[in-house]
Amino acid sequence: MKKNKKTLADYMWIISTIYLLLGLFNILFAWLGLLCFFIPLIISASGGGKKYCNTYCGRGQLLNLIGNDLKLSRNMDIPKYLRSKWFRYGFLAFFMTMFLVMLFNTYLVFSGDNELRQVIKLLWTFNIPWNWIDTSIVSPWIAQFAFGFYSVMLTSTILGIITMLLYKPRSWCVYCPMGTMTQLISKAKYNPNKL
Ligand code: SF4
């Protein structure tokens, strides 16, 4: 069968990769990641359902590429408990709580109660010093948000890669908080009885 012609949307994985690399050179680029946060929600809220996930998500494409094309995925079925509602909603609740903690830490720097911490927190546990970048051109809270947000993006990428290696390439999408949120928005919009 003839392969469908690729479109620009098929190359979003390049943008995701560039984003991750930019954060290595200058943490302030982490702010751009907010686009990956708001665009899926806007698309879903305006009736696009899971269009972002199905067409535009660079991370999903990247996992697919590494897992399928580079054959780094074991291609096993994801365990049932990771698919369950309680796990997906529980993980979303945990993820959002950690996101709020990150925002609160940003606020503390903004209010002057805390000093800027130039670290990346991986998997919500490990502090990695990230102090080779001069962030003095912006207010400390702007830099603090960038450190926090990049930590979130790196952490979810690591979880996505681990899940891709262990199971099927896009298994992360089963419990990805953005995917769960866009699904919830779509259900609330079109199928409120199924919530
Ligand atoms: S579930 Fe998450 S990682 Fe997967 S395509 Fe959707 S937004 Fe991207």
TrEMBL record:
One of its GO terms (molecular function) is 4 iron, 4 sulfur cluster binding. This is 4Fe-4S binding protein. Keywords: 4Fe-4S, Electron transport, Iron, Iron-sulfur, Membrane, Metal-binding, Transmembrane, Transmembrane helix, Transport. GO terms for cellular component: plasma membrane. It comes from the Bacteria. The keyword Electron transport applies. Residues 29-68, 153-187 form the 4Fe-4S ferredoxin-type domain. InterPro entries: 4Fe4S_Fe-S-bd, Electron_Trans/Redox. The chain crosses the membrane at residues 12-43, 86-110, 149-167. The keyword Iron-sulfur applies. PANTHER family: FERREDOXIN-TYPE PROTEIN NAPH.
